């Protein structure tokens, strides 16, 4: 006899990179008796139907949420409060309500007032992604060996937290628990500030007068193109992240600016020793990331050199 699925019915509200990857992974692992999906636009809902990944595609958030034992909001951070309000009266008692937003403090603040006390709110953030978005961009392997951070409020039912942990573990993630505030500080430096820097540098290069855009593109392998991948990330998602995690990002930006000033000074003074010491320290961080399995050690992220044939 096979074990029953972890959840009888999972509702995914939003079907882009993250919602689409969760649906594909949950289906591959047999974690849901039924996967019900909705998305904001009729176009996305029609595409989800065509893809055949969901058991049911419904027109409204309320319809998706009703009678689900796990509801995950896979939508931009700025939309979570309004959707929580919309679904609140349709949630079954004891349902687990979660999200995947890249900022946790604001999501908790905006969703909590609407959610009935009879449901278990366990916010989550899978630290996994690509620069692609939309219903075709997801894939079942996205979360394998990536972290998923849960930020349950203090008095959350432990069984609900454990059940959501089991779900993320089953689709390949490693789970860690922290407060929303700590999450937002950690992600400000590991994700939000790098995106801000990438958005800035790509914009700066685009506006240069003396170096043409075609030259920037032609010689991008010098380092620029790695920033362009990050700067190609979804504008709606990232607008919401910077608005929602403003305080932590500004704090990290202050420290970053101080460090940038130190390097600028070292360069201006011809202080090669200071530059060398700094670059040696940062190189060790890259090695550490590879050692803990969060990236590949292959040169240039494993890209095939132009003209090289696939093995
Ligand atoms: P996505 O590919 O752009 O998909 C977003 C989904 O949300 C779409 O189904 C969209 O519907 C729906 N949506 C957009 N605005 C909405 C609104 N105002 N109300 C209701 N639904 C709305 O985005 P994603 O990359 O999956 O990101 C979703 C969430 O995951 C975000 O909160 C993001 O912070 C978080 N996250 C993203 C990444 C990443 O790397 N991308 C990583 C971790 C976490 P339509 O298609 O109908 O417009």
TrEMBL record:
Pathway: Amino-acid biosynthesis; L-tyrosine biosynthesis; (4-hydroxyphenyl)pyruvate from prephenate (NAD(+) route): step 1/1. It comes from Nitrobacter vulgaris. Residues 8-297 form the Prephenate/arogenate dehydrogenase domain. Belongs to the prephenate/arogenate dehydrogenase family. Pfam families: PDH_C (PF20463), PDH_N (PF02153). This is prephenate dehydrogenase. The keyword Hydrolase does not apply. GO terms for biological process: tyrosine biosynthetic process. InterPro entries: 6-PGluconate_DH-like_C_sf, NAD(P)-bd_dom_sf, PDH_C, PDH_N, Preph/Arog_dehydrog, Prephen_DH. Keywords: Amino-acid biosynthesis, Aromatic amino acid biosynthesis, NAD, Oxidoreductase, Tyrosine biosynthesis. The keyword Transmembrane helix does not apply. It is an enzyme of class 1 (oxidoreductase). GO terms for molecular function: NAD+ binding; prephenate dehydrogenase (NAD+) activity; prephenate dehydrogenase (NADP+) activity. PROSITE patterns: PDH_ADH. Its EC number is 1.3.1.12. It catalyses: prephenate + NAD(+) = 3-(4-hydroxyphenyl)pyruvate + CO2 + NADH.
């Amino acid at each position: 006899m096979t074990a029953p699925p972890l959840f009888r019915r999972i509702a995914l509200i939003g079907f882009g990179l993250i919602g689409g990857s969760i649906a594909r992974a949950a289906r591959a692992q047999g974690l849901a008796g039924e996967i019900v999906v909705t998305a904001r636009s009729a176009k996305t809902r029609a595409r989800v139907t065509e893809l055949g990944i969901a058991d049911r595609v419904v027109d409204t958030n309320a319809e998706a949420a009703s009678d689900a034992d796990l509801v995950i909001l896979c939508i931009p951070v700025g939309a979570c409060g309004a959707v929580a309000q919309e679904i609140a009266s349709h949630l079954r008692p004891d349902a687990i309500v979660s999200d995947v937003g890249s900022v946790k403090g604001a999501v908790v603040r905006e969703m909590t007032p609407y959610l009935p006390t009879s449901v278990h709110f366990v916010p989550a953030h899978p630290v996994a992604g690509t620069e692609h978005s939309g219903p075709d961009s997801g894939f079942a392997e996205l979360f394998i060996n990536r972290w998923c951070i849960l930020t349950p409020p203090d008095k959350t039912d432990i069984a609900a937290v454990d059940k959501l942990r089991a779900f993320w573990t089953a689709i390949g993630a490693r789970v860690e628990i922290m407060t929303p505030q700590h999450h937002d500080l950690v992600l400000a430096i590991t994700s939000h500030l790098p995106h801000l820097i990438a958005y800035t540098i790509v914009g700066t290069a685009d506006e240069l007068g003396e170096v043409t855009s075609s030259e920037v593109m032609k010689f991008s392998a010098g380092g620029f193109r790695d920033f362009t991948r990050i700067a190609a990330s979804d504008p709606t998602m990232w607008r919401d992240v910077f608005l929602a995690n403003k305080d932590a990002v500004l704090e990290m930006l202050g420290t970053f600016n101080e460090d940038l000033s130190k390097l600028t000074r070292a360069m201006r003074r011809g202080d090669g020793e200071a530059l060398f010491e700094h670059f040696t320290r940062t190189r060790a961080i890259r090695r550490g990331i590879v050692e803990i399995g969060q990236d590949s050690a292959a040169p240039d992220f494993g890209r095939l050199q132009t003209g090289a044939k696939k093995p």
